[in-house]
Request: fold
Amino acid sequence: MNAKTIYYSVLAVLATVGAGIAEALGGWDTALQTLVILMAIDYVTGVLCALVWRKSPKSKDGTFESKASLKGLIRKGAILLTVYIAARLDMLMGTQITRTAVILFFVANDGFSIIENLGIMGVPLPTVIKNAFALLRKQAEPETQESNLSEKEEPEDYTPKHADK
Reply:
């Protein structure tokens, strides 16, 4: 086997695995693409906050910690796992709302986290961007949807640790 054959074989395997993952998550549509892009931006800006600005809310002294970075990657994986569960629930119920609501919720959360990270970096952001993420969160949890959970059983909102101040 020459290097070119190995290269194309590896690309074929990666493409197949990627397509399988995208299909399992409900398809590689705009919603999932946006979520994955924002997750990557959130991770990179979080690492930059720690490495360059030394103001990471994830560590005690604000500097980069590999353990905090690993936890962040695990959280991103858990987000994708939640999207997978929502996609399966939609398949079970014959709907498309659960996956979309879950993706919108996490897009809003990662968006707020990016805003926070950019704030640490000193980047001013227009209010319209902040409002857009707030609107996405509201759309992810519409009041018109009925819930079988009582008020005591209702789960708490997901809030990343670094969002607490």
User: Anything to note?
Assistant: The helical segments are 3-24, 30-53, 66-93, 97-121, 127-140. The chain has a mean pLDDT of 88. The CA atoms of residues 58 and 127 lie 25 Å apart. The domain at 27-143+153-163 is CATH 1.20.140 (Butyryl-CoA Dehydrogenase, subunit A; domain 3).
